[in-house]
Design brief:
Elements: E1 12-17, H1 22-31, E2 39-44, H2 47-54, E3 61-65, H3 71-84, E4 87-93, H4 109-127, E5 131-140, H5 153-172, E6 179-183, H6 191-194, H7 204-208, H8 213-225, E7 230-231, H9 235-246, H10 249-259
Parallel strand pairs: 1-2, 1-4, 2-3, 4-5, 5-6, 6-7
């Protein structure tokens, strides 16, 4: 059950998953200047990276190192929230995982669903009872979630889940004035791709739509403040969204297969 917590005197925090690199790291840097927040909680597996990030922040920051898919770690997060007597103003679900090969050639399909869907849902469910009315949730999705993707079947499906979940939850939380925003960028040059041995620039088509992490984060925060349920930053990403609505997905998949995307 979601409770309505009093906003009096309780420290207001942001909880960021996937904060040790890439877009989660950038969210932490940009939220550091948000006067509505008293503290930033940084969550990821690499503790040394999180501690490095705390040194760059002016606001007090708390390091909660661990795997978001671990039930025991999520229980520790909940216990920390309760013991600290805080209320969550901002939840950033930016932890994600992806591999881009044929489904039958991958041994991590279940892991993608676990990280991108199940853990995101669990973290959201865990945090909602401690969120103040008027708060916000930002979930990292992708343009891949707009339509099925050849050689990225599970990744694209997991991001489609994030988009659908976010937009529905946005409507469900209207009475509490909590905004839920799905962020749908094109590929960005972050450790996400490096960790998977991918070089975005090797594909000239995808290179056209490469996005700047700072710009994606700034737009996401702005769209969230505007009460929007989706943030699509670049023109190529917006074009892909339009294409996904008007072109049959079987034709898109045929083109991707023939072109070697």
């Amino acid at each position: 059950m979601i409770s309505n917590l009093s906003s009096s005197a309780k420290p207001r925090i942001a909880v960021i998953t996937g904060a040790s690199s890439g877009i989660g790291w950038q969210f932490a840097l940009m939220l550091d200047s948000d006067e509505r927040l008293d503290e930033i909680w940084l969550c990821a597996r690499r503790e040394e990276r999180l501690r490095e990030l705390t040194g760059l922040l002016a606001k007090p920051a708390r390091v909660l190192a661990g795997d978001i898919t671990d039930e025991k770690w999520r229980k520790l997060l909940q216990d920390e929230i309760i013991a600290s007597g805080v209320q969550i103003h901002t939840l950033i679900n930016s932890a994600g995982f992806g591999k881009f090969e044929a489904f039958c050639d991958l041994d991590c399909n279940e892991r993608m669903v676990e990280v991108n869907c199940q853990a995101l849902t669990s973290i959201t469910s865990l945090c909602l009872p401690y969120m103040e009315n008027g708060g916000r949730i930002i979930n990292m999705a992708s343009v891949a979630g707009f339509m099925p993707q050849y050689n990225a079947a599970v990744y694209a499906a997991s991001k489609a889940y994030v988009i659908s979940f976010s937009r529905a939850l946005h409507q469900e939380l209207k009475d509490r004035k909590i905004t839920v925003t799905a962020v749908c960028p094109n590929p960005m040059e972050t450790e996400f791709f490096e960790a998977n041995g991918m070089v975005i620039g090797s594909n000239p088509i995808k290179r056209i739509g490469i996005e700047d992490v700072k710009r994606v984060v700034a737009k996401a925060l702005k769209r969230s403040d505007q009460g929007k349920d989706m943030s699509v930053c670049s023109l190529p990403a917006k074009l892909l969204r339009v294409i996904s609505r008007i072109v049959p997905h079987r034709l898109v998949l045929w083109f991707e297969r023939k072109s070697g995307f």
